[in-house]
Fold GTP-binding protein.
Amino acid sequence: MIQKKICMVGAFATGKTSLVARFVHSIFSEKYYTTVGVKIDKKTIDIQANQLNLILWDIHGEDEFQKVRLSYLRGSAGYLLVVDGTRNNTLEKAFELQRRVEDTLGQVPFILVLNKWDMTDEWEIETAEIDAVIQKGWTVIKTSAKNGLGVEEVFHTLGKKILDG
């Protein structure tokens, strides 16, 4: 079995914890819990005839009061950069975090996760902004931790990118 550390990175309240809960436990809660420090979960998936044990590090969201401890990132094989599609500023924060993560880890596989796709009526991120990110060569996947849309796809796609590494 192959074991890989994956970090969940993004601004506060983007849905990182909810994505992990949906993926690992198939649950969603309307209650908001702030992650303090880091929460670690595990799930094994099958990719390309390999069993891949993902160690998921759900790192507290960053805001102006808290800075992501870059030491949490060490040893990561990849990461999910999580954005709340109903808050455009979380996309800008994701660009900043991506640069900082890359400075720390170097180039490792990552996916830009556009979360809360079930709330498209409140969506703030323009299609042109998403297209620009895709033009940069980034993998972008729309998800909803609430209804499960795209959640399995995100983790399987990242797992495949890591194995193809």
Summary: The helical segments are 16-25, 89-105, 127-135, 151-164. The chain is about 30% helix and 30% strand. The beta strands are 2-10, 38-47, 50-59, 76-84, 110-115, 140-142. The two ends are 17 Å apart (CA to CA).
